[in-house]
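Reminder: ligand-aware prediction takes two inputs, not one.
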Amino acid sequence: MKNSKKIVISTLILFAAIVGLVLLLNREDETAQETEQTASSKGHPSIEGQPTLGETEAPISIVEFGDYKCPSCKQWGEVVYPKLIEDYINTGKAKFSYINVLFHGEESVLAALASESVYKQDPENFWAFHKAVFDAQPATQEHDNPWVTVDKMKEIAAATAPNVDLAQLESDLNTEGTPLAGEVSKDDGLVQEYNVPFTPTIIIDGVMLEDPFDYEKITSLIEEGAESNE
Ligand code: CA
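Here is what comes back for the chain with calcium ion:
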């Protein structure tokens, strides 16, 4: 009898914890919706020192605030990014910059540091590394399990960015006092300044998208922007 009572009590505690968590997550969603509307009044974020794909002179600037640990960012990279590259980056109409977000804790920081190190050491191959890190993110619910490790980052860099000195990368991943921590906190500063509500957050010439997957909206913002720049 005692044992079954214990089981009932633990089940109740577990249930309450789950309900609490669900409520908390829902509330975060709501605040995200609210800040989304107001963030665009700040204009376009500075892309100085950020990895940027496409022609420097391209008239439209697109920024992704992304997190290597975020499943929607992986999905965005697979669904929207290739179209964007083909339609607008390769055609010289727009350029694309990536800024790190640290919403998923230590592993976000580690992947962000790795990306900064690769960008600094081998900028030409940054985008190959960037894509490969998202490819390495488990596609199932297991993305919450730890998968961003120093070894994993070295393995991906070795496969994608041959000019990266792996010992240097490893030392850059030692978060204590690495000079690249400044780059990561610069990105985090932009996340705060722009009230980045979720990842990926896409800003096109100062306009924050409510739905980063809305390709029609992306197209119209780029086309309108290109027209007004003419
Ligand atoms: Ca950066």
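The pocket of calcium ion is lined by residues 50, 99-100, 116, 183, 187 (CB under 6 Å). The chain has nine helices and five strands. We will return to this case in the review session.
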